[in-house]
Amino acid sequence: MRKYFDILKTTRLFSDIESGELETMLKCLGAEIKAVDRDEILLLAGDKPRHIGILLTGRLNILWEDYDGNRSLMAAVTSGGIFAEALCCAGVTESPVTVLAEAYSTVMLLGFSRILHTCPSSCSYHIKLIENMLSILADKNLRMQSRMEIVGLKSLRAKVLRYLKSFGYERGQNIVIPFNREELADFLCVDRSALSHELARMKKDGLIDYKKNNFVIF
Amino acid sequence: MRKYFDILKTTRLFSDIESGELETMLKCLGAEIKAVDRDEILLLAGDKPRHIGILLTGRLNILWEDYDGNRSLMAAVTSGGIFAEALCCAGVTESPVTVLAEAYSTVMLLGFSRILHTCPSSCSYHIKLIENMLSILADKNLRMQSRMEIVGLKSLRAKVLRYLKSFGYERGQNIVIPFNREELADFLCVDRSALSHELARMKKDGLIDYKKNNFVIF
DNA sequence: TTAAATCTGTGGTTATAACCACAGATTTAT
DNA sequence: ATAAATCTGTGGTTATAACCACAGATTTAA
């Protein structure tokens, strides 16, 4: 268990919790490590989510279960990532998503009720844990809100502009975006080549300049 | 204060908390009532959110502050609604939104730290309060996720279809949607008349039938 | 009950984004 | 260093959604 401490310390759920405390805490929480092979299912759509998971090594995919049975990729989880937390906190009884291992992975599973209800020995960091959980959910909320604000715009140009402005920089300042073209297109929910077309047009119109991931608004 | 109990009991933040407990609880939380006139500001974009608010009477607008200074309506809060909770829980120091009274309103303000940190007298329902808060945030998360899943689709037809299927009914079953055309268009982030056009086409193509808010998928 | 206001559907036009195919650029692997 | 793989831009076509204007339907108010 202790060999995963480095990863766990980078997890937002355990932020501001000292490594010394971590060990006792994990015992309190009844944390268990689970290893899964590629293509193994960690949570099946329709089942009740019973654990909040933290990915230690490997890679997971969150798949959206279509009402016709088709699955589509919703998100990917990488090392240090947390999953099923919203489902647990919302008390969902039938998961709308399937969590599938894309590669051999190790995860840490935490019972939700143990996180929420102070443990008998009432470790002092328990309140911090709950605070972190609130912070994770609230943060995701704000991020999605902001993305919806962008994706909801009617034109591709408006989406790009708003996205760039969301960095809050001054005009003329260099913006380094964390996406390549394909990823940006996915984020904006538009076609990749349509995005490239529009970017070229915006450059021609003197609205922006860019090269690779570096953008400038005029 | 007590005259607002009926509204407070309908609030998700206080669900499963008995009215008897409510009074002591509100005292613990240092709840204060505030009345504002139309067009008064409850939270200004750029300011640090200090309280979680519950709207008792009246109506509030959440306005998105554009990076160019323009404000656009993001959401409306109606009686019993909660606001600024995600901002507080995420520890945001500069609110990206302004909360404005659309009419004379009364709100209850709760200090965030008091919600999170168990009060000295550690009232037994405190844990329930935190649980409710987690549930509110997690629920909003899932709802937004699901909406993003719909809005992100490339064609209007796909959006409508997915939206209708999200009700999870069998084909042929009657679906009563909670929106009129304009609201549905807003939800799907499309033009109202374009939506009407597409609905007509889908009916012609034998995919769906509808009349007012009643829809059927074939 | 009539008038006013709101909602919904529809025709028509135009702008725009999706889609396809491909080539040059860039990165990664060997 | 070369080949392979991936990423990005671009031309061209087509489907589609935005947009405008308006009329009939429906709801609300007086």
Summarize the structure.
The structure is a homodimer of 218-residue chains. By secondary structure, chain A is of the alpha+beta class.
User: What is the CA–CA distance across the termini of chain A?
Assistant: 52 Å
> Biggest sheet of chain A, strands in spatial order?
1-8-3-6
CA radius of gyration of chain A is 21 Å
Q: What is the name of the CATH superfamily of the largest domain in chain A?
A: Jelly Rolls
CATH-defined topology of the largest domain in chain A: Jelly Rolls
The major pleated sheet of chain A works out as:
4 strands, antiparallel
Describe the oligomeric state of these chains in a short phrase.
homodimer
Number of strands of chain A: 11
Mind explaining what this structure looks like?
The structure is a homodimer of 218-residue chains. By secondary structure, chain A is an alpha+beta fold. Chain A has helices spanning 5-10, 19-29, 85-90, 112-116, 126-151, 156-165, 181-188, 192-204; strands at residues 32-36, 41-43, 51-57, 59-65, 71-78, 82-83, 97-101, 105-111, 174-176, 208-211, 214-217. Chain A has a four-stranded antiparallel beta sheet with strand order 1-8-3-6. Chain A has a four-stranded antiparallel beta sheet with strand order 2-7-4-5, with no helix packed on it. The relative contact order of chain A is 0.13. The structure holds a DNA duplex (30 and 30 nucleotides).
